[in-house]
Amino acid sequence: VQLQASGGGLVQAGGSLRLSCTASGRISNYHMGWFRQAPGKEREFVATMHRSDGSRYYSDSVKGRFTISRTNIKNTVYLEMSSLKPEDTAVYSCAASSSVAYATGSDSLYNYWGQGTLVTVSS
Question: Beta strand 17-23 with 31-37: parallel, antiparallel or unpaired?
Fold first, then answer.
């Protein structure tokens, strides 16, 4: 499955943004996640969602501010981001996992990756 993230841009601190990840194939077989990588830093887990039962998991740094959702019929995953902070600035990528351990957020468990979209939060 091929993935493409979109929706990034420049936003002021406290603002909101919605990212989309569109797949070329069916995502219903995969748990879908979002990761981000800030300049000079390692890639980090942001959020992930079970392929069908609605379970969602978030990193502590975004919990309560970000919401992951998916529409399997449209093969699309979303990341709603609110109360954005300058430290949220990063390239955001979506990924697909077939691992039962997907909720750990380990990027090694994600099989497919899309090109990222840049989110810049100004102070």
Answer: unpaired
CA 94 to chain centre: 5
- What six digits make up the tokens of 123? 């102070």
Q: Distance (Å, rounded) from C-alpha 58 to C-alpha 63?
A: 6
- Average confidence (pLDDT) over 64-80: 97
Using CA atoms, how far apart are residues 23 and 54, in angstroms rounded to an integer? 19
Question: What is the CB neighbour count within 10 angstroms for residue 104?
Answer: 14
Biggest alpha carbon–alpha carbon distance for the chain: 39
Tell me the per-residue pLDDT of 24-62, one tens digit each, with 9 for 90 and over. Answer: 989 999 999 999 999 999 999 999 999 999 999 999 999
Residue given tokens 């093969």 in the structure block: 75
